[in-house]
Model the fold of this input.
Amino acid sequence: MDDPRERIFREFMEKTEGHVNPKLLRRILDANADFTDWMIERHDLGKDYTFSPQFWGGFGPCAAYDWEYNHKRIDTTIGPGGTGWYLTNKLLGILLENGGAIRYRTKAEHLELDENGAICGVTVSDPGGKLHISCGACVIAAGAFSRNRELVDKFNPIFYKEGAEPVHIFTCATCTGDGITMGVEQGVDIDYVNARVGMFGPMRHPYGAAGFALCTSRHGVNVNKNGELRKPEPFGNAVSHLADEPGRVEYRIVNEATADRAEREAFGRPEDVPGCNMNPFYENWKAEFQQ
Ligand SMILES: Cc1cc2nc3c(=O)[nH]c(=O)nc-3n(C[C@H](O)[C@H](O)[C@H](O)COP(=O)(O)OP(=O)(O)OC[C@H]3O[C@@H](n4cnc5c(N)ncnc54)[C@H](O)[C@@H]3O)c2cc1C
Done:
């Protein structure tokens, strides 16, 4: 299989109109490949994963069927039990096996720098109060910032636009952008202009496989609240055209036969974990839409 790094690099630079630091972008792509190699060579990733077609398209590692979780899921596109969850558990296992520790319910609040400006510690709070942790390096991986209105307003003012219909946000309550806030406090320069805040249409969560299959099919017609025809947009646009529609809403109109056809066409789509039969979820579309 071809190494896609060069293609992804070019696409990314093109879409961000050259505003992204090319060295950093290359480093991310290379680190991704190194990480997967490390997982395969040192931690037997191939034992639990297969390299298979992905639910979203393309190829990638897919977790093996995990009976404990997978057979309980009413819809395999909704976790836990999918590949991301599986990988997180695997990494947790590697960390603990190697003597690492996790401090749960502990919130990082401030980064501490020494007189040379190098990171030397973090102030954290846990149920017992404040605590200081010394460190020689710190990886900031505090997730997204969509629950922090002040930050989102800086990155994408139309997201929480005053008077507009609220956007459905499916990120976790912990996505408050603490990593950014802590960085800014220490003078980190944040690029508010070129960063992207995904605001794609409701093609997916919290819907299950059947809803997704219908939305991504080409069947039916889309209309806005005024009854004007709208062209269905591809999944995952950075900013959905719904942002400018009245009420930020669009309807897909289908009759029963067409909906059934869309679901049947989804039969045989790649599973999110090999061995999961997705077809019953597509067959179950009427019950899913009824809910
Ligand atoms: C409902 C849903 C479905 C998704 N489905 C998919 C999918 O199918 N495929 C896909 O590729 N992606 C999916 N994503 C996106 C994917 O989950 C995220 O992109 C990914 O988890 C981001 O990883 P992260 O490590 O950057 O952040 P996170 O996974 O958010 O991890 C950040 C961690 O930092 C912790 N934290 C935050 N602030 C602090 C602080 N001050 N101190 C200490 N800890 C802190 C948080 O509690 C959290 O544990 C989905 C996301 C959601 C919400």
Remarks:
- The chain has a mean pLDDT of 86.
- The radius of gyration is 22 Å.
- Residues 84, 107-108, 141-143, 170-172, 174-175, 178, 205 surround flavin-adenine dinucleotide (CB under 6 Å).
- The chain has four domains: 5-97, 105-139, 141-196, 209-290.
